[in-house]
Each structure stands twice: as C-alpha cells, then as structure tokens.
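To the structural biology subgroup,

Please find below the input and predicted structure for Gamma-glutamylaminecyclotransferase, which we are adding to the shared reference set this quarter. The sequence is reproduced verbatim from the submission form. If anyone notices a discrepancy with their own records, reply to this email rather than editing the shared folder directly, so we keep one authoritative version.
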Amino acid sequence: MARVFVYGTLKKGQPNYKHMINTAKGLAKFQGRGRTVEKYPLVIAGKYNIPYMLNIPGTGHHVAGEIYSVDDQMLQFLDEFEGCPEMYQRTLMSIEVVEWEGKGGAGEGRATAEGVVECFVYSTTTYPPEWVGLPYHDSYDSSGKHGLSYVLRESR
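Predicted structure (tokenized):
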C-alpha cells in the first residue's frame, strides 16, 4: 500500500471522489486530513477549471487535503487519471497530519511523532508560465467562492 495526498477533485464531496470509492479501480482507504509541510501555489486553471498544485516549493500556501492508503491497482488508475507524467507528476512530499482517522489506535499507518507522513502527491512542473500569476488557494472546493466550477470529463 502507498500513501497518496489528494487536494482537489478527488477529495470527499468533490466531483471525482466517486473514483476513490470505486473498488473496481482498486482500493483507497481514507486515513485522515493533512496539509503540505511546505507552501505551494494551488491554482484553478484552464477552460475546465482544474485544480493544479504547481511544484514551486516555498510559494503559496500550506495546501489542505486528504490522505489515503491505496493499493497498486488504485495507484496505477490515479497515474492514468492524472495524466502522469505529462499533466501531473507523482512525487513524494511531506504532509502534516491535521486529523488522523481513528486516532488513539495503534498500528501501521500512524503518523510519526512529529505528525508528518510522506505521501505521493500529483503536482505539476509542466504548466504555462502565466499560471504562476493566478490566485493561490490553500484549499480546494469545486463550488467555492472563487466561482470556478470544475467541468467533469463527461461534460467536456
């Protein structure tokens, strides 16, 4: 099992969350909520209002999201879904645990003493330079006050 941190449309309550709970695509177990240890720009870009975390450490905000434990089948699905490695690149990042599922329990999957875990994150280094000038967000919600609703693939 691998840890994956999702910050956009794959989070609970967001347009693509259905893929995270579709066991035909593999297994994804919700572990908790977290945020990036380093700051990154989270922008909403393109004609489909897609959230992108630009891989520019030290710029932007500590990005909030969810931590999942996924099997190899789900990781492979996510790579394909995220257009990896062309659109997004899957890299290891340090994620600060904000809230751990079933806290108080012992065992595998516990955060380290500092409350930081290493997770795969789909961020991008392949973006148009003008995206750096877009507004930065610390959290993503498709129906947020930014007014940039995500356009589902099936609606494009």
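Summary notes: Residues 72-81 form the longest helix (10 residues). Helices lie at 17-20, 72-81.

Regards,
Lab coordination
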